[in-house]
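Continuing from the previous page of notes. For each protein in this section, the sequence appears first, followed by its structure tokens. Read the first protein now.
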Amino acid sequence: MYKHYQDWNELAPRGLLLIGFGISILGEAIILKSKNKSFWRWFPLGTIALIVINAGISVFSEATKQRALYEMKLSQPLDKQS
């Protein structure tokens, strides 16, 4: 039962950090584009940012699933928990 809690406790902060880091990279790409820098300076940075943001969303979604499984186990009667 506590495996789900441990997974949630590890994955949730990692997902939030990845999302925040990806948004920061995206902001940098937007700044470069607004300064009319070369396409090849801002495009790869923006693409990496979107990959990092999506990875963060995936990790955070897995954390949410683990928390839901933990909560479901808590709501079961003690004789059914394993």
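Done with the first. The second protein uses the same format. Note its length before scrolling.
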Amino acid sequence: MHGTGVEKMNFLLPIRIILCILLMMTAHCTSAIAVPLTISHVFSDPASMNNDALHDIRIHYRLSKRAKTIISIFDSRDYLIKEIRSDDIQSVGDHIAVWNGRDKNGTPVPAGYYVFTVEAQSRGEETVRYDLTDLTGGKLLPVPQAAYDSEQAAINYILPAPALVNIRIGLPDGGPLLATVVDWVARPGGRNFESWDGWTHNKTVNIKDMNNYQIGVSAYSLPNNSIIIYSPEKQNRPEFVRKNAVSGEKRNKKSPRKLMYNHWQHDRDMCYDPAIHLSFPPQLKHLPDGTPVVQGPVTIKMNVAERDESFTFNQRFEVVYYADFVFVCEEELGYTPFNWEWNPQGVNEGVHYITVMLRGYEGHFGTITEKVFVKKSPSQHISSEN
């Protein structure tokens, strides 16, 4: 006996409902599988901060799936100094983590650059990490000609992007390096001013009074995920977070083939120009201002500052000598203390300048210029007149 159309519809209705539920469940599962966990729209606001007026830096990011997050702050040596963890699973969408510019002990971090990473983990143990440090940092940047502004007593230059900067002053045509004004320190993009009074560090020579000095600016771009902490004094050598505020954990980074003169690849605490000094025989007489008086051949001793000895020896170096800024000789296999005998025969009586430059095989330079007074004996005067 055949059923009516109404009976058939009543029979099919539960089947249709079941099929709809199954389709909805399948679509939901397919959707869940199809959406991977991603982190996007990442940036910091602001990108730099004055460490004398600490305020919150907001790190923005977007999640494609619900997940727990860890924001890690590393110093320029890749040491972990701070973690910001989400207490609960965060929803899909935009989020903000706040860093107050302090290390894990609550101490304000010193001036320098820091990088942040964002790690997310979903309920299914899917983990992703946002870290652009090795992908966007370390590009050698073109820097337009730097100039010295005598009114402001500063070197001014323009950076196309935030960068790690080194500024040296020297003489052209094989002349010596005379001063390092900025020694691989982070600077923001745009126009920058570096205070400089023109003197060498030991106040022997005022370089800006020379007509032919040159300013050399080298710059490597900072990663897109970096934050610059700066101080009003604008230190010219890098500073680092204290050891007791540093975690033993370091950022996982790529290790590209090392290029000897690529300063971006150097360990940040092992990349600087070492300090050197000269000494003269103690028996020499001196002028009232302390200038040694030389009357014949003299042994000049070069030594490296104690704090820089191991760093200098590990990279190897050569020693180059100049008299009155003109090349005299070099020793390709340098060591310290290094003794050099200078014979002033043939130079005029009066003030002269001895420059010694330590040139490291990885592109680090130490330099010192000292003033001497050459005094001729009466017999030397007669001989030179004849």
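What the second structure shows: Residues 277 and 303 are 6 Å apart (CA to CA). The longest helix spans residues 5-34. We return to this in next week's lecture.
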